[in-house]
Amino acid sequence: MNNKEVAKLATKALLYEVTISPKAGLVSRLSNGSHRDMDFYTFIDSALSLSKYFSECFIYGQENDFYSPNFFKNLRDLGKKAEKEMYEATNGINTHKGTIFSMGILISVLAGYLKEVDEIDLKVLSEKIKNMCSPLLNELESTNNFSTYGEKAYKKYHLTGARGLALSGYDIVLLDGINKLKEFTKILDFETSCILLLFYYISILDDTNIVNRANFKTLKEIQMLCKKLYEENIKSLSKEKNKK
């Protein structure tokens, strides 16, 4: 696996994500959701603008030691450059800022890990991400400048947001979501499987965007609704599986 292959896969993931429909409140190929300032094509432009960044993250991870205390800091510099390119592609609209953060971490650590092994163990990869992201905990606890949605949600509700996911080593994706998607696609088509996985994620993740666009009560209501939808669909899937 090389930088070009990884960049292609990461860009493909972004294109798949925005194409999947319907996604209530989120931009898709059929709807702008709750967004007035962006649409499907904005996301296409944004995704394509980040392909170079994904490649750079892989090369950075290959050429540097992710155990180094400066690894995360220098990776952030790459991310800031990618943000500028994203804003240029979208005329100033924030489409993938969170993705720049999470994909940058995942790809760079993956690249470093691949120097050590021939086969990827997702549990080991998750642990390496946790270790690399450890400075984020002190960052959250010590910050006095609550400028982002995530920082404001942490201050008011102690929700860790995107930083918390990184600190967990993205285990909800690497050790949980991938397996669920594989199981769903044995019975359902790919798009429906992704929507079902989205219900699952919304039901268990504290989305700081929802909290800041609405409030904490609305977040909990949405989580309960998605939990119900997810569980109902899982029951139906189990029945279908038993028939076969």
UniProtKB/TrEMBL annotation:
Pfam families: CitG. Keywords: ATP-binding, Nucleotide-binding, Transferase. InterPro entries: CitG, TriPribosyl-deP-CoA_syn_CitG. GO terms for molecular function: ATP binding; triphosphoribosyl-dephospho-CoA synthase activity. Signal peptide: none annotated. It catalyses: 3'-dephospho-CoA + ATP = 2'-(5''-triphospho-alpha-D-ribosyl)-3'-dephospho-CoA + adenine. Transmembrane segments: none annotated. GO terms for biological process: prosthetic group biosynthetic process. The keyword ATP-binding applies. Its EC number is 2.4.2.52. PANTHER family: 2-(5''-TRIPHOSPHORIBOSYL)-3'-DEPHOSPHOCOENZYME-A SYNTHASE (PTHR30201:SF2), TRIPHOSPHORIBOSYL-DEPHOSPHO-COA SYNTHASE (PTHR30201). This is triphosphoribosyl-dephospho-CoA synthase. It comes from Fusobacterium animalis D11.
